[in-house]
Automatic annotation (TrEMBL):
Keywords: Cytoplasm, Gluconeogenesis, Glycolysis, Isomerase. The lineage of its organism: Bacteria, Bacillati, Bacillota, Clostridia, Peptostreptococcales. Its main location: cytoplasm. The gene is pgi. This is Glucose-6-phosphate isomerase. It catalyses: alpha-D-glucose 6-phosphate = beta-D-fructose 6-phosphate. One of its GO terms (biological process) is glucose 6-phosphate metabolic process. The active site is at 300 (proton donor), 430. It is found in: Cytoplasm. Pathway: Carbohydrate degradation; glycolysis; D-glyceraldehyde 3-phosphate and glycerone phosphate from D-glucose: step 2/4; Carbohydrate biosynthesis; gluconeogenesis. Pfam families: PGI. InterPro entries: G6P_Isomerase, Phosphoglucose_isomerase_CS, SIS_dom_sf, SIS_PGI_1, SIS_PGI_2. Catalyzes the reversible isomerization of glucose-6-phosphate to fructose-6-phosphate. Belongs to the GPI family.
């Protein structure tokens, strides 16, 4: 397996020859992560130990859902939704064309509190056969709870309670929470969010796998991609270091850290050198929600105790015509992490009337020229760039990328000396929102 991290354009701030001490810190972080003694690290061994029976049940349930409905609505927020949305946006169309199997339309709800959004959703689905999948580890999060109650009400009116309950699938804690109580009482088909895995690390558990399987995407391939990555990254020997980085290896010993470790080391080194913002960039629109998941993963894992890198994302070439200006000439407080899809799925040839420079070229070649041009222009003004090479957008590599970034994020959290698995700050807005709501109720009563 090749190294996914390419540092050819990392610039002068990243001199791995002088980061020898930091390499040692990454090795310690790797040891801590792989010791298996830290809370919420169940995802680390998951690709080796996942429950095969449960996966079979997920596949059977997905098959049943596909025959039951035309519209499948996934209700959840944050870690209980973004992984599935990322996979479905990246892969659903491709897998559908490959298999030729019909799959339901997939909608998402419960990730905002917009009356307009939910009204329009109800309008779109009103004459369709519907199934719901409600996902919440705590079972008490406001946004999915409201969306679930609105959509459940719609189902009750459409099918009656008994039939509606056969169309509701719940993924929640094994024993606690109001959603678990309701699911047991009403007899929904349920799957469990593992105790030792937090929301943003749960893509490869039923949280992500059930909706992804309903979309016709091969979850076994996804788990296999993660397993192969995990095998290399958890135990070593690490991936071969590319020739142009070998000399860096001899002094700083980067051969002793894995690709996720190298990414963690580079990101944290850049933060320590005044680069506070990481811009995830992609040239294939299917990666949009993958970067949404990345923003959540890194933002929620690292942004605490007064530290962390602020994650942002830009879609190129669209955003080159807006934020491109800032990247080229604005305040240099950021670095770029480029998601480079090496073999895009499809291509076409630019017609003759597009002008001499472009006519007859493959569109993907033009897209690649845009990436190379941007990298050269940004290198000229000293923007540090990390390129992540993704061989292709398939279930296998999607699973591998998920595991890669989860590992890298956990390691950089340890390097930053924060707990990458909690999110105490998320609670504050909920408390304040409840306070405001109570005030509103009093006002309404008056
Ligand atoms: O990563 C996380 O832990 C969060 O983003 C949660 O997934 C999110 O807040 C939703 O929580 P729950 O699944 O309890 O509804």
């Amino acid at each position: 397996m090749k190294r996914m991290v390419n540092l050819d354009f990392a610039g002068s701030l990243i001199d791995l020859k002088v980061l020898a001490g930091d390499v040692q810190k990454v090795r310690e972080a790797q040891k801590k992560l792989y010791a298996g003694t830290e809370d919420f690290t169940g995802w680390v061994k998951l690709p080796f130990t996942y429950d095969k029976e449960e996966t079979k049940r997920i596949l059977e349930t997905a098959e049943r859902i596909r025959t039951q409905c035309e519209v499948f609505i996934v209700i959840g927020i944050g870690g209980s939704y973004l992984g599935a949305r990322a996979a479905i946006s990246a892969l659903k169309q491709r897998e559908k064309e490959k298999s030729g199997k019909p799959v339901p339309e997939i909608y998402f709800a419960g990730q905002n509190l917009s009356g307009t959004y939910h009204r329009e959703l109800l309008e779109k689905i009103k004459d369709r056969e519907i199934c719901l999948c409600v996902i919440s580890k705590s079972g008490t999060t406001t946004e999915p709870s409201i969306a679930f109650s609105v959509l459940k009400d719609t189902l009750y009116k459409k099918y009656g309670k008994e039939e509606a309950n056969k169309r509701i699938y719940a993924i929640t804690d094994a024993a606690k929470g109001t959603l678990r109580e309701e699911a047991d009482r009403e007899g929904y088909v349920t799957f469990t969010v593992p105790d030792d895995i937090g929301g943003r690390y749960s893509v490869l558990t039923p949280v992500g796998l059930l909706p992804i399987a309903v979309a016709g995407i091969d979850i076994l391939d996804m788990l296999e991609g993660a397993r192969v990555g995990a095998k290399v990254w958890t135990a070593g020997p690490w991936e071969a270091v590319p020739e142009n980085q070998e000399d860096m290896g001899s002094e700083s010993d980067i051969t002793q850290i894995s690709s996720p470790g190298l990414l963690a080391l580079t990101r944290v080194s850049l933060l320590n050198r005044g680069k506070f913002i990481e811009v995830f960039e992609y040239y294939e629109p299917q990666l949009q929600y993958f970067t949404e998941w990345l923003k959540q993963l890194f933002g929620e894992s690292e942004g605490k105790d007064g530290t962390g890198i602020f994650p942002a994302s830009l879609q190129f070439s669209a955003d080159l015509h807006s934020m491109g200006q800032f990247l080229q000439e604005g305040k240099q407080i950021f670095f770029e992490t480029i998601l480079n899809l090496v073999h895009p799925d499809k291509d076409l040839i630019v017609p003759d009337d597009a002008g001499e420079l472009l006519a007859g070229k493959s569109l993907n070649a033009v897209n690649r020229a845009a990436m190379e041009g941007v990298m050269a222009a940004h290198a000229a003004v000293g923007v540090p760039m990390i390129r992540i090479d993704i061989p292709e957008l398939s279930p296998y590599y999607f699973g591998q990328m998920v595991y890669f970034f989860e590992t890298s994020c956990a390691l950089s959290g340890y390097l930053l000396e924060v707990n990458p698995f909690d999110q105490p700050g998320v609670e504050s807005y909920k408390k304040e929102m409840r306070r405001v709501l109570k005030g509103d109720n009093n006002e309404a009563k008056r």
